[in-house]
Write a structure and sequence with these properties.
The complex is a heterodimer of chains A (116) and B (111). With 116 residues, chain A is mainly β. In chain B, the strands form two sheets. In chain B, strands 2, 4, 5, 9, 10 and 11 form a six-stranded mixed beta sheet that branches. In chain B, strands 1-3-8-7-6 form a five-stranded antiparallel beta sheet, with no helix packed on it. The chains are: A mainly beta (116), B mainly beta (111). The interface between A and B is medium-sized, with 24 and 23 residues.
Chain lengths: 116, 111
């Protein structure tokens, strides 16, 4: 199957700092990537749909200025958590489809963010 | 917005027992997907169902899509400890590329 790589897998930062998470499709081009957030023992909540070369589409309740998404190439999307606070601590996972009509999502390994 | 509920939230079984998780949507779905997430891991695609009443099998796993395309189920026969994890159904929102995940069912299997 297709491979999606996410980095870093774990990050600890101080409150007020910004953290960037990278999501790469290693063996395919992804015009669209999806960013999810997952709290412990809970489901995946879609944060935004990242589109290559255009602005991301954010879900209701997700702050655009807080969670900056950039999809500058067909193989890379980044999520930047700006001015992080302890309540932003979570598991962030990106995913992508190989093609627009294929159903299956391939997920990155996830990034666990802890804000002190 | 679209909601996808799963029951039960959690189930603990003895190895060898069967397990079923149910997925219910508030709206008619074009298709339904199932994913498995091992503890500490990321979701992995299991299967996609498209047709009304469709049944698909993968070894000990049986997936079913309801006739009204509003619900789905995953049944595991004779569970093994390797089946431990959280099982999510996911529905594609009509007209959009995004996938909405169900609430998930966490399965624990004791040897």
């Amino acid at each position: 199957g297709a491979v999606v790589s996410q980095h870093p897998s774990r990050v600890i930062c101080k409150s007020g700092t910004s953290v960037k998470i990278e999501c790469r499709s290693l063996d395919f081009q992804a015009t669209t990537m999806f960013w999810y957030r997952q709290f412990p023992k809970q489901s995946l909540m879609l944060m935004a749909t990242s589109n290559e070369g255009s602005k991301a589409t954010y879900e209701q309740g997700v702050e655009k200025d807080k969670f900056l998404i950039n999809h500058a190439s067909l193989t890379l999307s980044t999520l930047t958590v700006t001015s992080a606070h302890p309540e932003d601590s979570s598991f962030y996972i990106c995913s992508a489809r190989v093609g627009p009509d294929t159903g299956e999502l391939f997920f990155g390994e996830g990034s666990r963010l802890t804000v002190l | 917005g679209q909601q996808v509920m799963q029951i039960p939230q959690y189930q603990h079984v003895q190895e060898g027992e069967d397990f079923t998780t149910y997925c219910n949507s508030s709206t008619t779905l074009s298709n339904i997907q199932w994913y498995k997430q091992r503890p500490g891991g990321h979701p992995v695609f299991l299967i996609q169902l498209v047709k009304s009443g469709e049944v698909k099998k993968q070894k000990r796993l049986t997936f079913q899509f309801g006739e009204a395309k509003k619900n789905s189920s995953l049944h595991i026969t004779a569970t093994q400890t390797t089946d431990v994890g959280t099982y999510f159904c996911a529905a594609r929102v009509a007209g959009f590329q995004k996938l909405v995940f169900g609430t998930g069912t966490r399965l624990l299997v004791s040897p």
